[in-house]
Amino acid sequence: MGPSGSGKTTLIDVLTGRKTPSAGDVLYNGRAPTKQFLSHGIAYAAQEESLIENMTAKEVMYYSYDLERGGRSDKREAARVINDIVGRLGIDSCFDTLVGGPLRKGLSGGQKKRLSIAVAILGRPEFLVLDEPTSGLDSQTSLEVMVALTRLSHGGLTVLSSIHSPSPNVFMLFNRLIMLLDGSMVFFGEVGTGEHVEYFGRLGFYKALEWENDADWLSQVVSESMRLNCACCGDWKSDMVVEPAVGCQCCGTFSGCRTLVELYRESDLRTENLRQLEAVSARFEDSNGDNTVVSEGYGQPLLKRLGLWPAWAIMKHRFVADYREPFFTVPRIGEKLIFAFVIVTIYLNFGRDLDALLGDDQVGLDNPQVLSYRLGLATCVFMWGVLPVFGQLATIPSLFTERALYQRESGAGYYSAGPFLLSRVLEEVLLIAVVSMITAVAVYYGVGLNPSYWLFWLTHLFTSVCGVLLAYAFAAVRFIRLLVPLLARQHHACSPVLPNSHDPMQASPTADFALIFDAGFNIILLFFTGFLIRKSEFPAYWEWAMYINYMYYAWGALMKNQFALDPETYGVNQAINGRLVLEFYGLDDGASGWGYLGYLAIFVGAFFVIGFLSLKFVTRLYIKR
User: Which CATH number fits domain 8-191: 3.40.50.300, 1.10.150.20, 3.10.20.310, 3.90.25.10?
Assistant: First the structure.
């Protein structure tokens, strides 16, 4: 406990390995914890729940259990473990209820909190650490949550929790209390024996009313501790009457006045606590180094976590939940259908009309109508090739809800960045592939394009995948913070740990920022496709940009597909017309449309690597300090 800014959350983050301490050591049973232990031996329940809104409580539990087992779990064993935990936490009555969120009704606040705890302890950890589990809950719901935690502690689980303004019933459920002030300890002792009342009573603080809430009384004592205790008279004096240059007005000295922090450091209580600590440490030192609590046996082996089993576990649970969710499917399907409808209705029969004109010996290749159809078809395939990227911007808001989930599950050792990114991208790609295959048929035959439908469809699909991967990269990386670091750090320059640096939502500050930068990046790339400005007209110092632009290869593949025609199959005029178009745009380089698609596939792989690095390294760099 402690007032706001006393260091409760920072202490928890240090103990759980989410932040690096500026000094001192963190020991469990007398030994430094391993990475495996921090991931699997300690369960961490954050203040804000990170649950999947479109799953039921039952689905969330089985999904998390499957992840904890590396994607290979026994159904009977899973049911036994889950039913046991659900029963102890009292959430069996809402087992088939959707978790819910801002846009749909679901579990209550207390039920979500207990479900978060249930998910956290599926891996049978040694310690459960919670950050203000009663925050935002009414007194009765808070009591229900804490009683559930008490049951877990009676079963052998060590529970450590920060808490703010608990009710008397909640306060008395705890065994021991740490009171913090400005990052320092002012009390550590037992609660049930009244040791806290006795200790602060010896310092001159007494409860005004016998029935006063101990937690409220302690908070008041600590919040007023900017007063100093006079060594001369023993009274507590406001810091307003203690001036560094003059000293205490009572005794005329400043060095004799002590704070609550200093008094605890000099107290018999701290001496006794240190003695007990030394006794515990000696007990584990006598065990000849055998410390199973911090062994490397926790959780799944690294090779399994890097493999395909975790990705399969995510896919088999999340695909069903997301595909039945209208908020997920309707925007993605609707965008493709509307886009195809607009293109077909604008460019209907353009290809067939151009073929008919070129088949007429009386119509020359420089005929204005022929030139108009050329430009129309070039514009049509340009739109088909590059605009899917902007349709994938719709995925960014949903990615922001994924980031907190990713941090919790990856922090628990369920998977690394690779399986997570692979599973989420495959979910998007499978839906895009099916829908775009249908819309590609409508556009290809509606406009009357040449000659390969498969190249036409695959180019659209690969470009869409690039858009999805870029959206993940922009949502994960701290691009904004890197550009304008003064906004994030300058006023914290003297702080050993940045506030909220554990919060994954600080990667890109908001979905709006990620949308703006993603859209802006792709708009800039439009200038370097070779369509808006021809390759021959580019300034020499910008020519390189075209060759590192995935949109250039997408448009190039479609242009080659449409205009690089065999004269024996399509006729001499059509072949000559196609060659003139490719020469006009600087695409007469001898490469085929499939060759351009191959280059585009390289960008798909490169963007996957970028998204992977954004999730694994850049985000982690700012999560842990």
Answer: 3.40.50.300
